[in-house]
Amino acid sequence: MFVLEPRASVPLSLTLLVPVIAIALTLIIGGLIFGFLGYNPTEALYEFFVAPLSRPDQIGNLLVKACPLIIIGTGLVFCYRANVWNIGAEGQLILGAMGAGWLALSFPEVQSPFFIAAMAGTAMLAGGLWGAIPALLKVRFRTNEILVSLMLTYVAALFLDWIVRGPWRDPMSFGFPLTKTYPDAGLIPALILPGIGRLGQLHWGVIFAFFIAIGGWFFLSRMLAGFQIKLMGDAPRAGRFAGFSQAKTTFAVLMISGALAGLAGMIEVSANIGQLQPHISFGYGFTAIIVAFLARLNPLAVIVAGLVIALAELGGDTAQISMGIPKVVTGIFKGILLFMLLAGETLTRYRLVRVSSRSAQSLATPSKREKASKRGKANV
Amino acid sequence: MFDELLLTVLLTSIPLILAATGELVVERSGVLNLGVEGMMLMGAVAAFGAASLSGSPYIGIISGGMAGMFVAAIFALFVLGLATNQVATGLALTIFGTGLSGLIGAPLVGQAIEGLPALHLPILSGLPIIGAFFQLDILAYGAIVIVGLTSVFLMRSRAGLVLRSVGINHDSAHALGYNVLRVRLYAILFGGFMAGLAGAYLPLVLTPHWAEGMTAGRGWIALALVVFASWQPWRVTIGAVLFGGVTIMQLAGQAKGWPIPAQFLSMLPYLATIIVLVTIASRGHIALGAPAHLGKSFFITR
To answer: What's the pTM value of the predicted model, to 2 decimals?
Structure first.
């Protein structure tokens, strides 16, 4: 039988190779599944990963799709580094969009260029407070943040559904569940590239996404508060001895990731839609979880990971049209990729060693197993 | 009128009972599988496809269970074989299952099948009020039997004791000579089979069509139900009926024109779960029977 033996040190080449190998294996296995179900595998892979980039304007659309993934993914890295499992970013995104929408709909005459910043602030506040609910319940009652944040996502989606059909519906919308369109000051303008002009749907929010990821990297790797978050995730006991507070860390990471998800929601609406409607996100809050893992919980790598996943999302759109398969099929690639990354995570930290089963029994000492089992914890 | 309502509530709660009972056994063995939604969708599409091809809903039941077990085996491979993070692996399973079921089901959209017939038990089904309990289908009766057997197995049998001890402390169980990974493998496969049956129930009984994502969050509610039931099989049944009741209440509310918006009634199951999580969690974990090693990976290392 095989046992997992911890590596003394992880070579850098392995750290960089794992995501590449994971992507390659994902394409192979995904292709095999399509072939097995009677589709042409090369056509499927082409439609998902090549066809989306066959026109230059699609590069702009790719960046637009990556924008919310990068922003939310950066926030989730904070959470997961602290071993706090926020999977309700989708709900925090919706609340953020609603917060910004409330401001935009309340001041239809406003013309100040700072208005968009105020909307971003409101969105971050709303998303952050929605994220604070699982934090409060976890700290106060020790409830499981996975279930609470997820349940709150359904609540948020239903709340948005009600508000755009009821109190906030535009009376001139002919019964459609739509709010009034935002004033111009509440919209994010398209990004005009010098010499090229408009590139697809490219907008200024994308630039902010890059800055947020870089800022997140700086915060986590260069500042004491970032160190505190990582320490409370890796060794909470040591962190407590150092005087750091578990409760404060939990609040901080859930509110940071909630605020960033809220910001992503505001950007999504102000740049692409211009008004609130029942569905404003294509599951970006859930997809960003994969982005965070693909980036191996490093905010700088979130940029690359966001672009890779955005390509698959864009491919889902093309395949839906050209092959007539539902958009959720992208989940095959996303799911396999996450499986492969998690396996890669284990195989970089441990090596598989073949031993006889008798020696495996006798060699297992509690202290080493305890060390190893600490990685996979999740409290319920 | 009342027994009709009761029947609808019961039918709505059956998939929750099946999926939550399976997940309960998995969690009792110390594994948290967040992939219930994905396994249910695979079960649903396999059951629909098999019933559509063979014309027999009974073959659909088996296929649904097997499909759930198959994707659960993938989960087990990663979580047990490679000791990957259970939360993230479970999410991967849900995303993968949603996608794969969508691809398999793409040619099935728009087809209809003949569902499972209701089996009216003689005499009992004619009883006033409680007659509804005896107008169910074979899978629903099966679900109730399985809950009973699971309860006896977990709480009264030696094997159940071993399973629970693996969930409470895998190191101690290992030291006593029990094969932790094998126990967990069986638990995960059972959980997958049950989630598959739960998924199969949707196209075979509730709506005779396939639609992508037709589970609509039931897998997540099943996960919440396990906590709601504080890891006790019989409480799962009570919780599932309560949840089914809330779901039906919102439909009834819409039909009767209650002044509360339908969306707020739809929120109730999710809010109820949060409230239950708070009430239960504040009473302390040990009193609840939460498996102490839930979600922790087990390694044999040198």
So the answer is: 0.85
